[in-house]
Design goal:
heterodimer, A: globular, B: 490 residues, mainly alpha, two-stranded antiparallel ribbon, 2 strands, 75% helix, globular
């Protein structure tokens, strides 16, 4: 054991967050109910400190820790920073919502932060076991968060579904990993890639393992045909938790997909194997997601199907199998998270004590109730549709271009046609807000931090959409430097 | 001075300022700021015309800044004579629309005016863009304000019309996006001037042409993808109809000129027959359809489609008369259709009906209005001395050079156009006073008279002396045709 392999600095953000969460967990026990805001502030503080550490140590260098089980590369830095932002935004958005629903408790914050830790480990894993550990840490926290309102039958049911299907997915993933181990004799990602490249592997088992791993990935991403849990969980979970499930974990899943498909199984011969699978997952996701979303009347369900469709687009970038394509997919994931945060954030904002703004009709006439919120939601919806000059358009352009360059012309044409179908249900939200008369005339109550955040979040879609160059370059550069 | 950037951004910034005035309590502030913004937007286009060098080849007033280096997308602007005229028309129309909505729009005034100003800026962007991605961004972004305008201030069936408008045009432009991505992949950039030099084999050229054509044909609109237009026009508020007919439809014609012809000239020649056939169907068949309409706005909408048929016909004749005629027809149609929709708007504001049958004898109560309406009706039927004649005449002449029957069918519009316009005019304006509603009509106000007078001057001026317009076109049209005549096959 050399001194080099004892270096724990690459894992400093994780170590810090672990200490911080443990501290918050303890401190929270001694805080009276009315001072619960301290937990909230401490959680935000912990996340910003993590961001400081990650940004402070960000460089193009790739460093390893824990005997090569853990890696700190530019991509992990990028994704982690986005995860911090995402989780912090979730905490701010759910502030008022949580208070009125007994969610504003120590458990909520510590579980959210532990799941953040899980995501960070997933993103930085350089070994299949570490990857799996991170995934389970994240998932277990999310399962219990869905069930946090234990009196609600709907939430409990959703948590049960999420747990059972999640466990099934984990099982598949583990089974696949064990086959990969059987074929290559290692669980370390770089070694696996080396052995595959050297040809010292058993092809059939490898491909079988690959199929199971991709199925597991499909579950976690919520791609068709492994999407069944998405609408029920999104619908059943308290909206604050839906927001968490819908946002940051997608970034972790991006890291996860990248580590397995691009790094471990990225040799040209294998790429062709998983490309075909991803094509099917991607096209089916876009088809089912976009078409099914049309008939939804509940906006959370609608956004769940929209997530499925967006994951199809995300996979479209991935299946090109080039570093350009991976960069486009990472860009897509980051943009998607930004849009989801704003969309669910708006639902949280419009909800109030004893009232969930979760039906599409609750958005009727929003323009009369608040011109500013209606305008922000309009930006979000057009960004999700992919109308320029909003950020969502550039994300679509990037993945379409990558898939086109890889020769998937017909898939690209299918993708644009499905996004045309998708335009309908996003437009419907705009229609309800602007064209219809308000039914609900209650005042919209929320705090200054929420108002600022939703404004910044939605306007970011417009401003970044006008200057998408740097974010795109950052994503592409991070992928290039990490491969 | 970055004139073209000003042309794009002055209206948009003014639009944001108008939106900031907020609720209807500040409606009059919103109106004045909007008028100021629109006038300013028009003023910055004046130096463009003054400093434009009609003899120079290529694009003028160019600006180029890197925008998205990862895709080599640049903020690249530049205009030739064709874009210049459309920009002037757009800036002019924006002023009129702000004035036209002055009294009529009473709810959510600031949003209404802001939508039009932003829309005006975005459409200027389309006419200025020399980067395909920039072009696409502006082209698509125009959908958002128009969608809102139709949907919020439109008629009873506005939701259906707005959705149809949006989805129809989005369908076309998404396929164009695929074509743009293809061109990017073979060339490595989005620069239109660079794409003009690109060598492409015939098969991909045809596919690219078809992808472009879907977007632009929907926008023009050409038969058979025109069905969204009558719905959109009928439901849109007057201002929306004016901008839609006067400028938005031109985005389609402009797209053919700026993208299809120079980038894929061989495919354009190969498929010219298809476009010409569709154009002639639009001219003849849609002309007949217009004849049987009971709704004034619908009638003018169909007449728009029929007149826009001349534009696509002229473009694909590939001769100077046809091309110049097409561009002049676009400008003239901008004036005339705008004026026609405003005239219907004047009647609708008073009677809240667009049905021809509800009118009759309007001349007795609104003589000044009837005179203006007469002028525009004549222009719409292509009477010599009005702007309507210039474009149609040139295109017909150009068509004779290519094929007598093209010219023959195109010239039928002179009959049909006169028939449906004048017949409508007769039923609405002449005859005895039809009912007590008509008897109670008040003639146009000074504001309305001013707007119609401006348009009347434009229509007559262009009809009698089109020289100032054709002079800026000559070189650009010749260059475009030279480009289109050069094969791009490898």
């Amino acid at each position: 054991m050399t001194l080099q392999s004892l270096n724990l600095l690459p894992a400093l953000p994780e170590i810090f967050l672990l200490c911080a969460v443990s501290a918050i967990l303890l401190i929270d026990l001694f805080i009276a109910e009315r001072n619960r805001s301290w937990t909230y502030l401490l959680s935000l503080l912990a996340l910003s400190a993590c961001a400081g550490i990650t940004l402070g140590s960000a460089s193009d260098a790739v460093s390893y820790a824990f005997n090569g089980m853990f890696v700190d590369d530019p991509l992990s830095d990028l994704l982690k920073v986005c995860v911090y932002v995402g989780v912090a935004a979730v905490l701010v958005y759910s502030h008022v919502y949580g208070r009125s629903r007994h969610l504003f408790r120590g458990e909520f914050f510590s579980l959210a932060l532990f799941s953040t830790l899980g995501m960070m480990v997933m993103i930085s894993a350089n070994h299949l076991l570490a990857l799996y550990l991170g995934l389970e840490l994240m998932s277990l926290c999310l399962y219990s968060m869905v069930a946090l309102q234990r009196d609600s039958a709907r939430s409990t049911e959703a948590a049960m579904k999420y747990f059972v299907l999640g466990a099934l997915a984990s099982g598949m993933l583990l089974y696949g990993m064990s086959m990969l181990y059987g074929a290559t004799g290692t669980l370390s990602i770089p070694e696996m890639a080396q052995r595959i490249a050297a040809g010292e592997v058993r092809g059939t088992i490898l491909v079988f393992g690959l199929v199971f791993v991709v199925a597991g990935l499909g579950f976690k991403l919520g791609a068709v045909p492994f999407h069944m849990w998405v609408p029920d969980v999104y619908h059943g979970a308290p909206t604050a938790v839906t927001l968490l499930i819908g946002s940051a974990p997608k970034l972790a899943a991006t890291g996860f997909t990248f580590r397995i498909l691009a790094e471990a199984l990225g040799s040209p011969a294998l790429v062709a194997e998983w490309q075909d699978m991803l094509v099917i997952l991607s096209v089916l996701s876009m088809a089912v997601g976009n078409i099914t979303a049309i008939v939804q009347t509940n906006i959370k369900r609608m956004l769940a199907y929209s997530t499925i469709a967006h994951m199809g687009f995300f996979l479209l970038g991935f299946l090109s199998g080039t570093s350009e394509g991976f960069g486009a997919a990472v860009f897509y994931a980051v943009v998607y998270v930004l849009m989801t945060l704003a969309a669910f954030g708006m639902i949280l904002l419009l909800s109030r004590e004893g009232f969930e703004a979760e039906n599409l009709d609750d958005f009727k006439g929003l323009n009369q109730r608040s011109r500013w919120y209606a305008f922000l939601m309009l930006l979000v919806m057009f960004s999700l549709t992919g109308i320029p000059v909003l950020l969502g358009f550039w994300a679509k352009l990037a993945v379409l271009q990558a898939a086109f360059a890889a020769g998937y012309t017909s898939v690209v044409v299918a993708a644009v046609l499905f996004s045309l179908i998708g335009a309908y249900y996003y437009l419907r939200v705009v229609r309800l807000m602007y064209f219809d008369e308000a039914v609900d005339t209650a005042a919209i109550v929320n705090t200054g931090d929420q108002r600022t955040l939703i404004s910044v979040n939605a306007l970011a879609l417009l401003v970044l959409g006008m200057t998408p160059g740097w974010l795109l370059s950052v994503c592409k550069h991070a992928v290039k430097a990490s491969l | 001075m970055p004139l073209l950037s000003l042309v794009i951004w002055v209206p948009i910034v003014a639009g944001i300022a108008v939106m900031a005035t907020g609720s209807d309590r500040n409606a009059s502030a919103a109106r004045w700021i909007a008028l100021l913004g629109a006038l300013l937007g028009f003023l910055v286009t004046v130096p463009l015309y003054a400093q434009f060098d009609p003899a120079a080849h290529g694009f003028q007033f160019q600006e180029k800044l890197p925008w998205i280096p990862a895709f080599d997308i640049n903020y690249h602007l530049g205009i030739d004579g064709i874009s210049l005229l459309l920009i002037l028309l757009n800036a002019f129309t924006t002023v009129l629309v702000v004035l036209a909505g002055w009294k009529v729009i009473e709810s959510r005034v600031s949003q209404y005016l802001a939508a039009f100003l932003v829309l005006g800026g975005l459409m200027n962007g389309v006419f200025c863009a020399l980067d395909a991605a920039l072009f696409y961004v502006f082209f698509e972004a125009t959908l958002i304000p128009m969608f809102i305008v139709i949907g919020v201030w439109g008629g009873p069936n506005r939701v259906y019309a707005a959705m149809k408008f949006f989805l129809y045009t989005l369908m076309g432009s998404l396929l164009t996006l695929v074509a743009l991505i293809y061109l990017y992949n073979v060339s490595g950039n989005f620069s239109l001037p660079a794409w003009y030099e690109l060598k492409i084999a015939l098969a991909p050229q045809i596919l690219i042409f078809l992808a472009f054509m879907i977007a632009f044909a929907v926008k023009v609109p050409m038969w058979p993808v025109h069905t969204w237009l009558p719905d959109a026009h009928v439901e849109a508020p007057t201002g929306g109809s004016v901008v839609l007919a006067a400028i938005m439809l031109k985005l389609g014609g402009y797209g053919f000129i700026r993208l299809s012809l120079p980038i894929v000239p061989d495919a354009s020649h190969a498929l010219a027959g298809l476009v010409i056939t569709l154009s002639l169907i639009a001219v003849v068949y849609i002309g007949l359809v217009a004849l049987v309409q009971n709704d004034m706005k619908k009638l003018i909408a169909y007449s728009s489609i029929s007149h826009m048929g001349f534009v696509t016909l002229g473009i694909f004749l590939f001769n100077e008369l046809g091309m110049e005629g097409a561009v002049l027809q676009m400008v003239s149609h901008g004036f005339i259709s705008g004026a026609m929709f405003l005239c219907v708007g004047v009647l609708y504001d008073r009677m809240h009906s667009r049905q021809i049958a509800d009118y009759g004898g309007v001349v007795n109560t609104m003589p000044v209005f009837a005179a203006f309406f007469m002028l525009f009706a004549m222009a719409n039927s292509g009477l010599p001395g009005t702007s309507g004649f210039v474009g149609e005449f040139l295109v017909t002449l150009g068509a004779v050079e290519v094929n007598f029957w093209y010219a023959f069918l195109a010239a039928l519009t002179l009959i049909f156009g006169a028939a449906y316009t004048l017949w409508m005019y007769k039923r609405v304006v002449f005859g005895p006073v039809a009912n007590h509603h008509v008897a109670a009509l008040k003639d146009i106000s000074a504001r309305e008279g001013f707007i119609l007078a401006l348009l009347g001057i434009a229509v007559l001026g262009m009809g009698i002396y089109p020289q100032p317009m054709s002079v800026v076109l000559d070189t650009s049209v010749a260059d475009l045709l030279a480009h289109a005549a050069r094969t791009k096959l490898p």
